[in-house]
């Protein structure tokens, strides 16, 4: 901790270079699932925060989905006013230490830093954000969730991921009784079970959940809408409903052998690994199905989930780990920082390559693939990959992990609610002015509306939907009072 506030000049980027917290050596960090870098020491955090140019128009804030007051809390950190910096960051985000760890800053705030454009290297915004919030937890500055004066109304939140937890917190502070329903045995959604500990250690999530629970939010775990209650039954129980389930349906790939033993979905693999980290009994890990130890692993895909799978495989003791992706490095959707981390840890990237078949009947033994080239741009503007003639090759593979992204589940059928309207992509159709679905009092937010996206967008949507739900609930209470 810095010894009291101290006025420091900003604009240090000319003489002070960009320095991230030091990462552990690859051969050491791959032996466990702990985060690969510690947080800054106080002096180093202040030094890096002081590199901020304090722009009149801060592009970092503009390109942050939460529009965090980044220059303000950087200045406070540089001056040693860490508690005030934390309070400033907490104004716009319910999970700043989580965003500081897993946001793709290279594509958002840091990627749009003015001094990055000037060639001096971006301010290390994410690492400073992690530092100030972790310090706040240690120092006891993170205050308990204080419920507002009871309004006599209740809200049911379906899904305990970033959007659901954010809305639950704001609604509880506003004085509503909040019940969160989730299919898993621990809240957090993909934060808990989809993201490995080396990116986001599990106690970081659980302390946030504990704070919500202690603030009076009621969690119903192992609860599946459609099995334990229909959506209509929950509507009758609560004054409003928020659907924030995320998207969990794995995208399929059509090729021979894809159903062979040893070909697995990315999320199933990651959930099994994360459960082992919690100390759970995981039979399909113990019997070797989701354990990469001693195996040749091929991960198909180029997003952040694929990066999570390859780096998890290394830590499980895989014999070899290869990532097969049909485009080149510059056109992959995942974080470039994650690619670098994976390469340091021994992952081999097979760029411009697409799978054609999985070989092996009783057990996967290899992936047959073909080389690709980038052709004309497709409808999204990205250059479409095309097969190179006569370029087939084979990769040994005992474990093939499909990490091709996620789509929405069939919620009308799953929730036993055929009237619930969806788009042609299966996401929930909402009125974007109110974030309400076609069912009165049923709102939706997060990936189940926008499709698979970033955690920070889930937090933003959870924050935004709270305002609309609050307005609806006040009008409902007013109408009921008049009717009485």
UniProtKB/TrEMBL annotation:
Keywords, alphabetical: 4Fe-4S, Iron, Iron-sulfur, Metal-binding, NADP, Oxidoreductase
Domain FAD/NAD(P)-binding span(s) in chain numbering: 155-457
InterPro entries per record: DPD_II, FAD/NAD-bd_sf, FAD/NAD-binding_dom, GltD-like, Helical_ferredxn
Cofactor: [4Fe-4S] cluster
Domain Dihydroprymidine dehydrogenase: 30-140
Keyword Ligase: no
Gene Ontology MF, one: oxidoreductase activity
Keyword 4Fe-4S appears in the UniProt entry: yes
Protein name, UniProt field: Glutamate synthase (NADPH/NADH) small chain
Species annotation: Parasphingorhabdus marina DSM 22363
